[in-house]
Task: inverse folding
């Protein structure tokens, strides 16, 4: 077992408690006194303070737990390698309660109270959209790991960037060619009838049509619905593929009822793992997914041909072969999203080194350094794969995984190209003033 | 308690919500464990629970109540505690409390690493409440006021206080304070924020301490300090009783709930207090259901956060209390009417005591998973309470086993434990209620008849309780 897998909390100096103890030896904790830890790593400089806007409570908490673990592992790695410009990273966690107003308040606290260099780590769209204006007003870089299209849409501001995770528009577009060529051209969309579902509908329909495919039916389902049998007859008989993006607690019921409706026959299925992130695919009710395909941002299950850097990443965070914690096989990670924390922290490091970041006076230079980034090679810093950053829309583009459920595990069967997901930018942040 | 900064952000939030609705969402509504529960045959449990409570009532109607009442009166002397440790224990508790407040202000900003929110919301509000149901009124010793107050008494402060609390106030002040507490816990945007919580508990500690000085400790904790009132009520279900005797305590063991048989009738404000405690926990479950979110126009798959639902949830909290109190008083009034009872207020004051096992069952069922996971975070936080890199107990880097409540197996076990608690709590309540009614009317026929409306209410609340734990919900 990798000892790193044990760590789940980052202490004041941005390294884990275990490091502190390892560094000062057994029993030396007795010597620890206020102020001791911060300087225990014999760093000559003040740390770089990163405010981690974390979904500790509220509906984002299951994601927050793994964002925290990934952040801890990445910070440990960076600090062990000498930090950024010789300075260690210090993570300051504030809980945003997965609430937009609270998120905005937290950004303000980071700047005014905690004097951080930048704010980082937000996942849920509404918190990002609620916090970004505050980050803009306070002129503090805001590195989000959110997957939404809001950053790329050009509607945020110069300080808000998403360099570590691809956005939903690119994800949806990138899977269309493979679906058309491998599963079939007549697609029925089954989606929850609100913004998230509408995004998939609006991005996917043109993308599949561009591949010579056709959306033969759309089946919007009210968000509060918990039984789906009355909607399933709306799926036309000549459908080749059902593209499903149901989310929420009724997902398992949806899959079960889909299985009961179609039995051993029926169209092929293609889904987004967002529906079942952190849910065991061997759970009762999900049997019908066997053989079906999913988009995955990063593979949850260890793959046979996994490159070494991906193994290193999984080991550093403490993931077992099923994508669960090495300490707790039932605690399944949010694998398709949390890699974004790791990659974002490495991009922050690279950007700070590029602009020789010294302190808050260099915040604009930091954003410009990130905007200037283009290609990012796959490797230890980018374990999810190769990426291209578009500085104009502050958004990164990358390869996506298409995985098939085989014996209750997801096996990657195809990796899309970066070009599959790219689209014309709708804005240009670099033309905005600071 | 909302900071000006937060208030300023409300318009930002509106923008945020609108923007999300305009199609930039990455919805990550988690399938959560409720998804596994939705696949369980929970409707059978709802039916079974209703039948179990109804059958218990019918059995009591058919059986003579005297043997049960006699059985409930039996108790056994366990041992004598040859000292009164209240001052010492409470003083230690005060020091612990002071350290927690320090941690709240100066420790980690992470509510899952700072011991203050973990102790207040998980160990005290959940854990200690459950312990009171089992072991009795531990708060009489553990409260952080008695020790410091004793010190002041030794220095000359009058033990009986300098003024008297007006009798007419009854439990109304505690009722109001509990409502504030429930609002802070359930509705306020950031009750787990260490700084905000440290400020809140400090203000409350000072307020209570001042009250103890002015009106005397006994008077203040009898009817004003809401935790003392609540935990004393909950401890009535415990099989253990501690009787102070000179400078010692005699510990008795009886049947669970037997103390309720001897309890004095509560005034209406006391009845309302207990019903508020139950309704607030019920609302904690209810406000997360798809049903409630639909009513207030919130899409449960993109819950925007607490700040957006402050007004409707505040109203909902009050409405849940009004609904429960209305049904309870109606059931008592109707029951008394059926048997020609003269004093329905006194009947309500006695018949509210059997609600205690239901309140305890709700507490257990609703906070079980929080206790199992956040309890681990609490243990970890004790090793490094001030966030200085300490590892006092070797638990600082403990990997919190969140998986203990995750997955279909855990969902099955937890659901069954919750259902057992809810059904068991109501069966006990209906039984105790019957015995209370018999004590009130001294007639088996009258007791049975007067309890028909109450039994119907309890059957309804059993089904409601099980529904709350099995219906689609967020989080």
Result:
């Amino acid at each position: 077992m990798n000892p790193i897998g044990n760590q789940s909390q980052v202490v004041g100096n941005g390294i884990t408690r275990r490091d502190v103890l390892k560094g000062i030896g057994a029993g030396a904790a007795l010597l620890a006194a206020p102020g001791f830890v911060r300087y225990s790593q014999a760093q000559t400089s003040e740390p770089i303070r990163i405010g981690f806007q974390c979904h500790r409570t509220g509906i984002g908490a299951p994601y927050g737990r793994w964002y925290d673990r990934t952040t801890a592992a990445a910070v440990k790695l960076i600090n062990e390698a000498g930090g950024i410009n010789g300075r260690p990273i210090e993570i300051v966690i504030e809980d945003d309660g997965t609430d937009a107003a609270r998120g905005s308040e937290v950004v303000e606290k980071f700047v005014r109270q905690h004097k951080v260099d930048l704010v980082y780590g937000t996942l849920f769209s509404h918190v990002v959209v609620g916090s970004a204006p505050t980050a803009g007003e306070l002129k503090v870089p805001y590195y989000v790991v959110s997957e939404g299209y809001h950053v790329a849409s050009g509607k945020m501001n110069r300080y808000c960037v998403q360099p570590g995770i691809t956005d939903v528009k690119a994800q949806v577009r990138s899977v269309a060619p493979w679906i058309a060529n491998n599963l079939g051209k007549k697609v029925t969309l089954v989606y929850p009838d609100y913004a998230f579902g509408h995004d998939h509908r609006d991005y996917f329909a043109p993308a599949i049509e561009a591949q010579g495919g056709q959306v033969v039916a759309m089946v919007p389902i009210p968000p509060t619905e918990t039984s789906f049998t009355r909607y399933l007859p709306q799926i036309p008989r000549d459908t080749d593929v059902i593209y499903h993006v149901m989310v929420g607690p009724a997902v398992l019921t949806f899959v079960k009822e889909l299985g009961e409706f179609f039995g051993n026959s029926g169209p092929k299925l293609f889904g987004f793992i967002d529906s079942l992130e952190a849910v065991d695919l061997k759970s009762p009710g999900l049997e019908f997914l066997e053989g079906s395909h999913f988009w995955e941002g990063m593979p949850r299950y260890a793959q046979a041909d996994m490159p070494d850097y991906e193994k290193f990443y999984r080991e550093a965070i403490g993931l077992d072969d099923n994508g669960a914690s090495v300490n707790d096989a039932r605690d399944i990670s949010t694998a398709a999203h949390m890699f974004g924390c790791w990659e974002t922290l490495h991009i922050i490091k690279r950007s700070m080194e590029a602009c020789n970041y010294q302190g808050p006076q260099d915040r604009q230079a930091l954003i410009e350094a990130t905007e200037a980034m283009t290609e990012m090679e796959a490797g230890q810093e980018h374990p999810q794969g190769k990426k291209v950053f578009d500085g104009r829309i502050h958004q990164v583009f990358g390869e996506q995984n298409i995985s098939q459920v085989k014996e209750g595990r997801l096996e990657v069967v195809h990796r899309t190209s970066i070009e599959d997901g790219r689209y014309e930018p709708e804005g240009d942040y670099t033309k905005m003033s600071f | 308690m909302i900071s000006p900064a937060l208030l300023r952000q409300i318009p930002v939030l509106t923008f945020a919500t609108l923007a999300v609705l305009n199609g930039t969402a990455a919805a990550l509504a988690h399938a959560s464990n409720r998804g596994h529960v939705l696949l369980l045959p929970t409707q059978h449990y709802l039916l079974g629970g209703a039948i179990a409570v109804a059958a218990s009532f019918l059995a009591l109607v058919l059986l003579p109540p005297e043997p049960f009442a006699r059985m409930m009166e039996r108790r056994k002397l366990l041992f004598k505690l040859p000292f009164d440790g209240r001052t010492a224990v409470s003083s230690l508790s005060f020091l612990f409390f002071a350290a927690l407040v320090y941690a709240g202000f100066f420790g980690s900003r992470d509510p899952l690493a700072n011991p203050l929110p973990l102790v207040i919301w998980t160990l005290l509000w959940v854990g200690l409440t459950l312990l009171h149901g089992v072991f009795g009124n531990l708060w009489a010793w553990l409260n952080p006021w008695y020790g410091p107050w004793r010190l002041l008494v030794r220095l000359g402060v009058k033990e009986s206080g300098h003024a008297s609390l007006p009798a007419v106030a009854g439990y109304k002040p505690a009722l109001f304070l509990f409502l504030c507490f429930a609002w802070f816990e359930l509705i306020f945007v950031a009750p787990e924020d260490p700084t905000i919580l440290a400020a809140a508990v400090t203000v409350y500690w000072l307020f209570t301490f001042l009250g103890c000085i002015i009106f005397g400790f006994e008077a203040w904790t009898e009817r004003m300090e809401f935790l003392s009132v609540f935990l004393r009520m909950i401890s009535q279900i415990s099989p253990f009783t501690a009787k102070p005797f000179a400078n010692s305590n005699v510990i008795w063991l009886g049947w669970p709930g037997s103390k309720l048989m001897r309890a004095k009738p509560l005034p209406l404000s006391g009845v309302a207090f207990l019903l508020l405690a139950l309704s607030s926990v019920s609302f904690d479950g209810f406000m997360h259901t798809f049903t409630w979110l639909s009513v207030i126009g919130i899409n449960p798959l993109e819950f925007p956060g607490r700040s957006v639902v402050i007004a409707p949830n505040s109203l909902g909290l009050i409405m849940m209390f009004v609904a429960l109190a209305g049904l309870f008083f109606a059931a008592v009034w109707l029951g008394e009417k059926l048997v020609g009872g003269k004093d329905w207020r006194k009947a309500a004051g006695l018949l509210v005591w059997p609600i205690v096992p239901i309140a305890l069952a709700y507490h257990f069922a609703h906070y079980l998973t929080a206790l199992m996971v956040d309890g681990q975070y609490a243990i970890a936080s004790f090793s490094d309470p001030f966030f200085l890199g300490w590892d006092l107990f070797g638990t600082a880097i403990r990997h919190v086993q969140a998986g203990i409540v995750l997955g279909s197996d855990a969902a099955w076990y937890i659901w069954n434990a919750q259902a057992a608690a809810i059904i068991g709590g109501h069966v006990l309540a209906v039984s105790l209620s019957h015995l209370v009614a018999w004590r009130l009317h001294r007639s088996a026929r009258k007791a049975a008849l007067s309890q028909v409306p109450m039994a119907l209410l309890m059957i309804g609340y059993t089904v409601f309780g099980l529904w709350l734990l099995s219906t689609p919900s967020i989080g």
The first strand of chain A starts at residue 48 and ends at 54. The domain at 3-166+335-398 of chain A is CATH 3.40.50.2300 (Rossmann fold). Residues 164 and 344 of chain A are 4 Å apart (CA to CA). Chain A touches chain B through 101 residues (CB under 8 Å).
